[in-house]
Fold this protein.
Amino acid sequence: MTGFLAVAALACSEKTQPPVAAQSALADSADQVMYGARFNLTDRGLARARLNADTAFFFNENTRVELQKVHTTFFTTTGAKDAVLTARRGTYDSRLGNMRARKNVVVVSEEGKRLVTEELIYDQNRNEISSDSAFVMTEPGRQLSGIGFRSDPNMRNIRILSGASGFDRSAQGNLPSARPAQAAPIPARTESPPASPAAAPPAVPVSSSTPAR
């Protein structure tokens, strides 16, 4: 049986082999690799989020997990779906109780708010998302942007750290209205009747006599 396997391997080596995908450097050094990984993030027994990843690489006695293609669903205290986060990369640290998402991070709430940034931290103990990177948050009729923020996952209460700007089409709140400025109406021209010539003042008689001295 061993000889058959050796011959088969030799025969295969003489044929053109398909290109081999480059193996991740994480896989070479990881303690464990898991495909289709799923984690339930809880706080004092209360489910806060469900973290899914296409691939998970475990390090440091499984306390640090490097993630690829992250998909995280956040929940309210009643267990209802609150928001969804997606990212290309991520790191989950079970000792600190947080997950750091990186590369094309997008958070979409159930109310239709959408936040885009390059890096974001989720703290499961505080049930808070935060970032020190530039971000843009949009919702129907409104947009916010800045450098760094702190917020709950559904983005109802968001605090911008610096460089806040944006617009509000409803013209409410402190943001300037984004409605286009309207030009003031041009008054219609009216033709006035030609002014009648002013009446000439009465002539003053001029005396040609020389006044007496």
